[in-house]
Amino acid sequence: MNDAIVIIPTYNEIENIEAIIKAVFSQSKEFHILVVDDNSPDLTAKKVTELQQEFQKNLFLLNRKEKTGLGTAYIAGFKWCLSKGYKYIFEMDADFSHDPNDLIKLYNACHVDGADVAIGSRYIKGVNVVNWPMSRILLSYFASKYVRFITRMKIEDTTAGFVCYKRAVLEAINLDKIEFVGYAFQIEMKFKAYLKKFQIVEVPVIFTDRKRGKSKMSGGIISEAIFGVIKMKLKSIFNSK
């Protein structure tokens, strides 16, 4: 059995899904893919079903009835992948902001170098972001600095969504207790791994803004990250006493 699977959560990604799937499957290392689709009105799931005829053994689809947040999509994906026995479980966006060619770097950081969590980091070597407006670069950069300050994690890109987890990490985290549903989910997962003393490394990558489709970023997602991080940190202090 193949040991690595890439979870790609989707909502209205019909413009990107076929290309991203084929790009992942073109890598020198074999990766399986699990698409977790939130009942996309643009029929993203239908396109994945069509592609399964071509990739019968390594492309899987998890259909959800409604859009309930990035975090819940990943939690559903994690549970599915754990039940199937995969050793290395990846998070990756559908829109090519994460380069499929970097998957092998994250895999090697865990499989060869022994890390428990490998983060595709935009900020470990300067600011490696392409096609973002300066306002969004500053928001993302200082959000990561803010999270680092509050949580004390030694991670430069705390909000990164391009990650490889060893299955032992996901098994150790109580996935049913993950609270954040938006992009702050990424922070919470890293924080839970950090609290459990797993080895977390950052691998430098270049992040490129999407060329097709629409961003899912919203004000509610940002406020969840800002205020939720303080609550998360305080809860960890009191729970440890």
Automatic annotation (TrEMBL):
Xref: CDD domains: DPM1_like
Domain of life assignment: Bacteria
RNA-binding as UniProt keyword: no
Start and end residues of each Glycosyltransferase 2-like domain: 6-172
Pfam families in alphabetical order: Glycos_transf_2
Keyword Glycosyltransferase recorded: yes
GO molecular function: dolichyl-phosphate beta-D-mannosyltransferase activity
GO terms of biological process kind: glycolipid biosynthetic process
GO CC annotations on file: membrane
Keywords: Glycosyltransferase, Transferase
Family note: Belongs to the glycosyltransferase 2 family.
Name of protein: Dolichol-phosphate mannosyltransferase
Organism field: Xanthomarina gelatinilytica
